[in-house]
Design brief:
Blueprint lengths: L3 H14 L14 E3 L1 E2 L13 H5 L7 E4 L10 E7 L3 E9 L21 E7 L7 E6 L5 E7 L4 E3 L7 E7 L2 E9 L10 E12 L5 E5 L14 E7 L7 E14 L3 E15 L4 E7 L27 H4 L33 E11 L4 E11 L1 E2 L6 E3 L2 E12 L4 E12 L11 E13 L4 E13 L2 H9 L20 E13 L4 E10 L16 E12 L8 E12 L5 E13 L5 E9 L4 E3 L9 E3 L2 E9 L6 E12 L4 E13 L4 E18 L3 E2 L3 E2 L1 E21 L2 E22 L8 H4 E3 L10 E17 L2 E15 L7 H9 L4 E8 L1 E3 L2
Parallel strand pairs: 1-14, 2-4
Antiparallel strand pairs: 3-13, 4-5, 5-11, 6-7, 6-12, 7-8, 8-9, 10-11, 12-13, 12-14, 15-16, 15-45, 15-46, 16-17, 17-18, 18-19, 19-22, 20-21, 22-23, 23-24, 24-25, 25-26, 26-27, 27-28, 28-29, 29-30, 30-31, 31-34, 32-33, 34-35, 35-36, 36-37, 37-40, 38-39, 40-41, 41-42, 41-43, 43-44, 44-45
Length: about 850
């Protein structure tokens, strides 16, 4: 992995050499807007009485795209654009014949509430694939996103520095925006063209949405449908410096209800070295300021995926996105870069740096470097976590104005393994290439990837890799050989997908494969290797309003899975439908029928022979209420049955959102599930030979989430989050894999365990996480966070006889862990 400073130097040299000739401005049209240079900056007050607004050309050709595509809007909208050497300005006038009906609802930043809205979309690179969204409601509540990939993949962790003022008057309402050029990445050239669009939501008109230029939901892409903003002459190359130091104090509970107080701190730093290249650095990055990881009880042999919450790693994740095993049918969290590998417990990040940006040639760059220090037992004892270096490099080149492209990604992990950590891999390298190509007017897209991986270390480390749940080389009935003397392991993965994302009928067919030795989990995330699949999706899309509904989607899916040597593991058909009624309620329903033909589970015995599995049936349904109401209900119900009815699962997920006033909002949601699994796999027991164990488990889980938001002003908010969780289970009927695990008869696949019975650990696990967050943006781009987090947990080695209320009562009697965090950022526009 190249050090980041030489990479930055190369990037700057390439940028200078690859600067394109200045684009030629086109005359104004229904898809072209003209920006007016401002001799004097307008005052951001929501009024258009500044001199520049009398000169700026007016944008009028707004068209409806929901509920009717390219329909006439019910109310007119006008907009103007201006700029100077520091800022881009936008003024929008939303005419309304009944301005007294316009809702002015407050919420914390980046929360979408159901009321009128004006959104400005800017593709400052003009690559027709990436950009920024800036939205505001009549009360001045701001939302912003960075966009990646043309299809409106949004990074909501991105918080730009910008200002907006709104006014409700006798003509309707207005929004006046100021966007510092330091926030908009663009090529430094004599003349620039930005991709540009303005959307308006008219809340009380049945969710009507209008936009300039006309946006067509039936056509693929979002950024590629933006208009052009021309007239931007002589834009400078501003640089920016942002600092976000923070301090944390926490009490750490110890035996006897004693606690130690610990104080910590760190900082995030952002510096724009050019108008299109930004360097981010962090020292001892903190986790997110709002929510903790959700509570789970994982009874499988696979790792639980948790979302990244540290701002340094969250922002800009779209650049580093390289999914594995992802299709329109089934797409999970698997990918080549999982940033939570850097600084996982008990390791600690010394520092991390990343560069992100786009060169004039259409090349997007994204190197990341992170270092974690050695962690050992106090007093110089054995190493718990070695000194480790993590490196990532992502490059992506656009072709044909973003309609085609290719890219590469490389990750590297190097550990200073010593005598105490020889069970860890010393190094892990991944190299991958991907491509995409749109054709037939952008209706179809062909994309794919090839990934190669290699890991190395001691024989013990590579032996553990072969035996873990991702690989299971020890399974006796496959063609894979386990070798205890290996010191390295390599593998590959391939994906090819053909997609149609336009018109009434849309669909995709894909083939995905991963070899048995493919391993990316040192810096990526993957559940299983040794897998191939064929996935098919067809969707019927009613995007135009009818007499019965506003819009609807009906999907049909078929998938098949095999191991790489051809053993079938799943065949299933799924259908699901989603309808938005004219009263804004959503109805959802679907179901899966699976297990067609002779199928076998290669991982269920955790290293033993594959076991035959029977069919399954999994219907579900749900609804969501009108978000414009004071009270909005939601409910989803899931059911699943398998193993000839011996195993069942049912879950209920209700939610109620309440708007108490324009400043108070709250919600209560829950999940209640009852799971019965007749063949819950257990860790094998090695006693006079390996015994692959299964048991019957009856598990009940109840979790709840409470949220209360108070918005004093658009820049001062208080948020309360609390989530209690209880899961309890009882085991019975201990069995082991029989000599005929592929028998057609269910009872012949398992047999009673005749050895000395291991202790089956019933459990009653309880967790509670809560946060109280005060967020104050005391000046544009500068924010103060004050956070109090409390966590509790309790475990009992029995299911118990208490009801859920009794379990919650015991949970709240548990000793609390409190953490206080103060984080202050200061934006230096230098």
């Amino acid at each position: 992995m190249m050090p980041l400073l030489p990479v930055a130097a190369v990037v700057l040299a390439l940028q200078t050499a690859a600067s394109p000739p200045p684009p030629t401005a086109r005359p104004p049209s229904a898809t072209t807007a003209v920006a007016q240079r401002a001799a004097t900056p307008p005052v951001i007050d929501g009024n258009d009485n500044d001199a520049v607004w009398r000169l700026a050309p007016v944008i009028k050709d707004f068209r409806q795209f929901q509920p009717t595509e390219d329909g006439a809007p019910s109310l007119p909208t006008e907009a103007k654009v201006a700029y100077d050497d520091q800022n881009l300005y936008v003024f929008v006038r939303a005419f309304d014949s009944h301005p007294d009906s316009i809702k002015k609802l407050l919420a914390r930043r980046d929360v979408r509430i159901c009321c009128d809205q004006i959104k400005v979309v800017i593709d400052s690179y003009h690559d027709r694939r990436t950009g920024f969204e800036f939205a505001v409601n009549p009360a001045g509540v701001k939302r912003d996103y960075a966009m990646y990939g043309d299809d409106q993949q949004e990074d909501d962790a991105w918080d730009g520095v910008w200002e907006v003022a709104t006014q409700v008057d006798s003509l309707g309402w207005t929004a006046e925006f100021r966007f510092p050029l330091s926030q908009l990445r663009y090529a430094h050239a004599p003349s620039n063209v930005f991709g540009f669009a303005i959307w308006r939501d008219i809340d009380r008109h049945g969710g009507e949405r209008v936009g300039w230029p006309v946006y067509r939901p039936s056509k693929r892409g979002f950024v590629s449908q933006l208009g052009d903003l021309v007239g931007l002459e002589g834009l400078p190359a501003p640089r920016r410096l942002e600092l976000a130091p923070y301090a944390v104090t926490k009490n750490v509970p110890e035996a006897g209800f004693q606690h130690n107080q610990k104080v910590d701190g760190g900082a995030d730093i952002k510096y724009g070295i050019t108008s299109n290249i930004t360097v981010d650095a962090t020292v001892n990055p903190d986790f997110g300021q709002v929510e903790a990881d959700p509570s789970v009880v994982n009874l499988t042999s696979f790792e639980t995926f948790f979302q990244e919450r540290r701002p340094f790693f969250v922002e800009g994740t779209g650049i580093f996105n390289f999914p594995v095993n992802c299709s329109a049918v089934n797409c999970g969290p698997e990918g080549l870069f999982y940033s939570r590998r850097i600084g996982h417990d008990p390791s600690r990040i010394v520092g991390a740096t990343k560069i992100s940006g786009r060169l004039g040639s259409g090349l997007t760059i994204g190197p990341v470097e992170g270092i974690t220090k050695r962690v050992g037992i106090a007093g110089g004892g054995p190493t718990l976590e070695p000194f480790t270096n993590y490196g990532v490099l992502r490059l992506s080149q656009d072709l044909r104005n973003g309609q085609s492209g290719f890219g590469v990604m490389a990750t590297a992990v190097n550990r200073n393994v010593d005598q105490f950590t020889q069970g860890l891999r010393e190094h892990a390298y991944v190299g991958a290439v991907d491509f995409r190509h749109r054709f037939h007017g952008g209706t179809y897209e062909l994309n794919g990837s090839l990934d190669l991986s290699t890991v190395g270390g001691s024989a013990a480390a590579i032996s553990a890799t072969q035996l873990n749940s991702r690989h299971l080389f020890q399974r006796p009935d496959d063609r894979i050989n386990y070798d205890s003397t290996r010191t390295s392991l390599s593998g590959d993965a391939e994906e090819i997908l053909l997609t149609r994302r336009s018109g009434f009928i849309q669909g995709q067919t894909s083939y995905l494969r991963r070899s048995p030795g493919f391993e990316v989990n040192d810096l990526g995330f993957m559940f299983r290797a040794n897998q191939q699949s064929w996935n098919n999706w067809v969707s019927l899309n009613w995007s135009q309003q009818t007499k019965l509904f506003q819009r609807a989607f009906w999907n049909f899916n078929w998938w098949q899975y095999w191991t790489t040597d051809g053993m079938p593991t799943d065949r299933a058909f799924n259908t699901n439908a989603h309808v938005q009624l004219k009263n804004q309620w959503f109805l959802h329903a679907g179901g899966t029928i699976g297990g067609f033909g002779n199928l076998f589970c290669d991982f269920c015995s955790r290293g033993g022979a594959a076991i035959r599995v029977d069919g399954y049936f999994a219907p579900w349904a749900g609804f969501g209420g009108d978000p414009r109401g004071v009270i909005t209900p939601f409910l989803f119900v899931n059911y699943r049955t398998k193993d000839g009815g011996r195993s069942t699962s049912v879950s209920w997920s209700p939610e109620i959102d309440v708007r108490v006033s324009s400043q108070f909002r709250g919600s209560v949601s829950g999940n209640i599930s009852h799971d019965i699994d007749d063949r819950q796999d257990l860790p094998p027991k090695d006693s006079l030979g390996v015994h692959y164990l299964f048991a019957h488990i009856d598990q009940k889980t109840v979790s709840m989430t409470f949220r209360v938001d108070y918005t004093a002003t658009p820049t001062l908010t208080v948020q309360l989050y609390a989530s209690p969780f209880v899961s309890k289970a009882r085991y019975s009927n201990l069995r082991e894999l029989s000599a005929t695990p592929r028998a057609e008869a269910y009872d012949a696949r398992l047999q009673p365990y005749a050895g000395s019975s291991p202790f089956l650990q019933d459990f009653n696990s309880k967790f509670f996480n809560s946060n109280l967050v005060v967020r104050w943006e005391y000046r544009p781009g500068s924010t103060l966070y004050v956070v109090w987090n409390q966590g509790r947990d309790d475990f009992e080695p029995t299911q118990g006889t208490r009801d859920v209320a009794g379990d919650f009562k015991r949970l709240f009697n548990a000793y609390p862990r409190n953490t206080f965090l103060i984080k202050a950022s200061y934006w230096l526009n230098r």
